[in-house]
Amino acid sequence: MHVLLADVLKLQFVDSGVPEALTEMIKRLQEQSKDLPEAPDLCSIRSASKVLVTLLLGDEPMQKCFRDGTGQLYEVILSWLQEDNTDLQRSGALAIANFARNDNNCTRMVAQGAVFQILALLERHVKDGDVAVQHAALSALRNLAIPAANKVQMLEDGLLERIRMLLCSDMPPVQFKLLGMLRMMVDGQEEAAAVLGTDQALLSKITEWCGSQEHAGVRGEANRLLAALIRHSRAPEVVYAVIQANGGKHLISMARSEHVIMQNEALIALAIASAVTIETVEGSFKDGGIVPTLQQMLDDPMVASEVKFSALGLVCSLANSDELREEMIAQGLPENLTNICNHSNAKLASQANVALGILNGTVTDPAS
After folding, report:
1. Which of 296, 326, 294 has the alpha carbon at shortest distance from 311?
2. ARM repeat positions in this chain (predicted)?
3. Are 170 and 135 in contact (CB under 8 A)?
4. What is the pLDDT of residue 4?
5. How many secondary structure helices (H) and strands (E) does the chain include?
6. Of the candidates 95, 93, 112, which has an alpha carbon nearest to the alpha carbon of residue 104?
């Protein structure tokens, strides 16, 4: 009820011309600050721009202000990205992120060149820049990258090359947003995943952040990006590069996460890596404890069925390695699989039967 009431009020404010009044006030304050540079009213500019961003949180008010990319207010907000005032820069980027809440708006903004303006803003803040501005700009880029067509266009516009400048950032909020934006960029994009996944400098930084003990969010996003590079590229070259960067142990650790989505992403990436080039991964996976991890996962009644299903797929891929197959048998994995063959989940039981047959050599892995 409170949310609905707030949205109604936002719409009333927009219909009453509040956004236009706020932008006029900001413009007037900026002009006054030019005449009196020693006493600019920064607090009022900051407050007015924040109110404007808040109004755009409502879907209908946002669409009225955007007007399919032709709204006067939208054009004013775009101009804020080029201002020297960091409050306006930040509010401008946050407003772009709010406008980018549906595919049509995202497509229109990318076509109009909004990405170039956001990148230019980021480049102004690479060294000793405003973290809040960087955070807001990366949020806008991530939202703009959601439509598949935009991913292609943004890649063609050179986004990946220009965004690498932020790898030097030592600020966790920027690292977190950068990783999330890169993960969105490679989602469903085989070529982009292959390019990023063979960039040793990038992989070195990702694996460094995979081990971050200071910021759980950064650690989680880094691991998810590492898994995404393998999942979306399915390329032996990417698997090799990830293993060379010591990424194997991080994927195995990710499979032990308390979050189901992260467990699944890790297990699928590990299975793909094993399927496309088992020779590359077997040593790293063995040293990383992949077999004990699988055994614990399959034996634990609290592990979700969907996670166990992915784990069974990984067993099938790992069986292509004689060394790992022998370890799985020696560790008693066939007994774990036999127990799952009687599971009430028919799909899970069937997959366990297949995995058991592959492990025992009576069934050939259809993926091999």
Report:
1. 294
2. 289-333
3. no
4. 45
5. 24, 0
6. 112
Work out the angle at residue 225's Cα, subtended by the Cα atoms of residues 155 and 304, and round it to the nearest 5 degrees.
Answer: 135
Q: Report which of residues 37 and 6 the model is more confident about.
A: 6
pTM: 0.89
Tell me what pLDDT residue 41 has. 74
pLDDT at 3 over 60: no
What CA–CA distance (Å, rounded) separates 264 from 243?
A: 19
Q: Residues 6 or more apart from 238 whose CB is under 8 A from it?
A: 193, 194, 197, 198, 229, 230
Torsion of CA 140, 146, 150, 152, to 10 degrees: 120
Orientation of helix 86-99 relative to helix 114-124, angle to 10°: 150
Domain spans in the chain, listed from the N-terminal domain onward: 1-187
Cβ density class 32-56: b for 16+ within 10 Å, e for less: ebeeeeeebbeeebbebbeebbbbb
Q: Which tokens in the block code for residue 89?
A: 């820069």
For helices 131-144 and 114-124, what crossing angle results, to 10°?
160
Q: How far is the C-alpha of 64 from the C-alpha of 14, rounded, in Å?
A: 8
How far is Cα 141 from Cα 42, in angstroms, rounded to an integer?
27
* Secondary structure (DSSP) of 258-297: SSHHHHHHHHHHHHHHHHH-HHHHHHHHHHTTHHHHHHHH
Cβ count near 178 (within 10 Å): 28
Of 245, 251, 266, the residue nearest 199 (C-alpha) = 245
- Percent of the chain surpassing pLDDT 70: 95
CB 91 within 8 A of CB 53: yes
Q: How confident is the model at residue 5 (pLDDT cuts 50, 70, 90)?
A: very low
Closest CA to 141 of 200, 229, 81, 199: 81
Distance CA 47, CA 44 (A): 5
CATH number of 1-187: 1.25.10.10
Please answer whether residues 323 and 284 qualify as being in contact, where contact means their C-beta atoms are separated by less than 8 angstroms.
Answer: no
In the numeric block, the tokens 């808040």 are attached to: 54
